[in-house]
Amino acid sequence: SAAAGRSTSLTGGQVSISSGEGTASSSGAIFVQSANGGAAGASGCLVFSSGSALGGNTGALFIGSGVATGGRGGAIQITAGSGTSGAGGTVSVASGRSTIHTGGLLTMTSGEGTATSSGSILLQSSNAGAAGTSGMLIFSSGSAKGGNSGALCFGSGVSTAGRGGAVTLSVGSGTSGAGGLVSVSAGRSTIHTGGFLTVTSGEGTATSSGQILIQSSNAGVGGSSGLLVFSSGTALTGNSGAVLIGSGAATAGSGGAVTLSVGSGTSGAGGSLSAAAGRS
Known about the structure:
little secondary structure
């Protein structure tokens, strides 16, 4: 056990561990580890923690590599050990809890590239084995009792001399079973109107705005292409929602055309186009 001196009126003593300097080559490593466990036990814990505080802030905990003037900054790696039985070890990162103020902020930022690109951030689960599935990724805000739950924002940054970055949501391909589902739903409310779902293309302040393309993929040799359904939901005691299809107004040009057409085919009867008013 090693402990610095205690003080009743001033700051306590400092404990410092430094490896040897290498003036011509590398400095020495610092190795902190518990010994291996025996046949019937576990290896010892390593605890890096600041002490508690009564009337002030607790001490910060800094883990980082030093600055390099002629090479790369040192990597920081946190990994759980592998094992041959049971689930793999957990890695958990949580910010601080507060009983009277906002909880602590958790931020993850890649390295800045002052002359070129900034670093990427890659969040992914590992590949599954022969008899399992790959792990889930969950991005969610917590629940709220007396206020709004937290928003979830996915977006790319602004570019002043290039294009804005793309945002892509896609499901992985597979060789058996139906393709994976992509589902987007607005929030449900038990006493007010449900959440609004909007899809808007990018504005073109000097030229055209962006297009919105909604289509099913092409079918294979033995199937048909997927259905497109544009419909409002049912209503129990009020009117069901309207379906509006139209082009916007033009102040110095022609209004946009609206076209409904059935695709051509090389066998069988042509596709039907049907319009029917509501039944009462």
